[in-house]
Write a structure and sequence with these properties.
Elements (H helix, E strand, L loop, with lengths): L11 E4 L2 E4 L1 H18 L9 E4 L4 H12 L4 E7 L3 H18 L3 E5 H5 L12 H19 L4 E3 L4 H13 L3 H6 L3 E2 L7 E3 L7 H10 L16 H15 L3 H12 L11 E2 L6 E2 L5 H6 L9
Parallel strand pairs: 3-4, 3-6, 4-5, 6-8
Antiparallel strand pairs: 1-2, 7-8, 9-10
């Protein structure tokens, strides 16, 4: 097969929209997909002070690489989870890509900040649950404290379609009302954006391979058995028989998202960290039993 746009041999076949592409035109296709999502949903405004959260995995590192290639200015944030050798590998990959693109990378070490790493807390709560809580809080507070106006994450089409599917199954209306490539800033919550919203997991893997982006392929040991993985596998089966169903599902959701009305919560300031909270203390300060707010060096 020949590439759709040139006479070179095609190295990639995209089933939806169906086309055969050489390496260069495949990378261009992915970059254009990201740019289109940014422009369509107005994710990045002029003079935006952008923070890109990178884990060391393929998604966030490809995001940083593409945003840099598209000419956007930003800084990076890596959260060292303190999970033995796994976190060291993630930190190494994150530092390498930011060294190559010549942009600043901030590293926050949970173990140094909170005294314990992820997986070292004695609790009945699933590790993935409080890990997610911790990462979301630190990303937002670091961004807010340092004057960033937006935080970009590497969530892709597979992540988002599984998340929406899960929340429709459980009718989590409030989550559905806020789901999408853009979550506007509110109070001390900094704007969140997802530029990889329409790129598939396999496309990102191929892009990382072609662009020679070194990333961690080892899965976190605490992710085993996560329900999101089960939903992704189910949607993969549907996608195999119906190419494009994930993209059409997520686009259809965005067109009709207005039917899910956001619940009105009265927010107050957490008495510990002064960040938004529904109670006297926010969920983060309650879980980590903080007596004073986090201070980032």
């Amino acid at each position: 097969m020949k590439c759709k746009f040139c006479n070179k041999e095609a190295e990639v076949t995209i089933r939806y929209p169906r086309m055969h592409l050489c390496e260069n035109h495949f990378k261009e296709y992915c970059e254009n997909r990201v740019k289109n999502v940014i422009d369509k949903h107005r994710l990045i405004e002029k003079d935006e002070k952008l923070l890109v959260a990178v884990s060391g995995g393929k998604d966030s590192l490809v995001l940083a690489y593409i945003l840099n290639k598209l000419g956007y200015e930003f800084e990076g944030l890596h959260i060292d989870l303190g999970i033995e050798d796994y976190s060291e590998m993630c930190k190494k990959s994150s530092k390498k890509i930011f060294s190559e693109i010549g942009l600043p990378l901030h590293i926050v070490k949970i173990k140094k900040l909170l005294g314990r790493g992820i997986g070292e807390v004695k609790t009945r709560r699933p590790v993935c649950s409080y890990c997610g809580l911790t990462k979301r809080y630190i990303m937002n507070k670091f961004a807010y404290d340092n004057g960033f106006t937006a935080v970009a994450t590497g969530h892709n089409l597979d992540d988002e379609s599984a998340f929406v599917f899960s929340n429709i199954l459980h009718w989590n209306i409030d989550y559905l009302s806020k789901q999408g490539p853009l979550l506007e800033a509110e109070d001390k919550f900094v704007k969140k954006i997802k530029p990889l919203y329409e790129l598939r997991d396999k496309e990102i893997s191929l892009y990382a391979s072609f662009a020679k982006i070194e990333h961690v392929t080892k899965k976190c040991k605490y992710a085993r058995g996560a329900t999101s993985i089960k939903y992704k596998k189910f949607l993969d089966i549907l996608e195999k028989d119906n190419p494009g169903i994930k993209l059409n599902f997520i686009r259809g959701f965005l067109r009709n998202r207005k039917i899910f009305k956001k619940k009105d919560f009265e927010l107050r300031e957490c008495e510990i960290c002064r960040m938004p909270s529904q109670g006297k203390r926010c969920a983060f300060c309650r879980f980590w039993r903080l007596k004073e707010p986090l201070m980032f060096q």
